[in-house]
């Protein structure tokens, strides 16, 4: 005579205990993998990063040029050796003064 055995039922806790950690690791790995591909610094965003970098390089070149112009103006206003034309230009612009024999033509 053949003895029949019924399959042993496993409880939900046992299944969760055995399958929980690998499922959690798989979920976390999938999250970080997707983030590495489609995230803001991911592989698909590389082209946008290159465009942004090129814009920033152009902005840096413009600001460097403006800085050189301002550096030159500051050098012309050095108290020890001020450029008379630069001083005259600033005084006329800021204080709105003119010589008595000059004619002022307002520009609109």
TrEMBL record:
Pfam families linked to this entry: DivIC
Superkingdom to which the source organism belongs: Bacteria
InterPro entries, sorted: FtsL/DivIC
Official protein name in the record: Septum formation initiator family protein
Record organism: Sphingomonas populi
Highest classification ranks of the organism: Bacteria, Pseudomonadati, Pseudomonadota, Alphaproteobacteria, Sphingomonadales
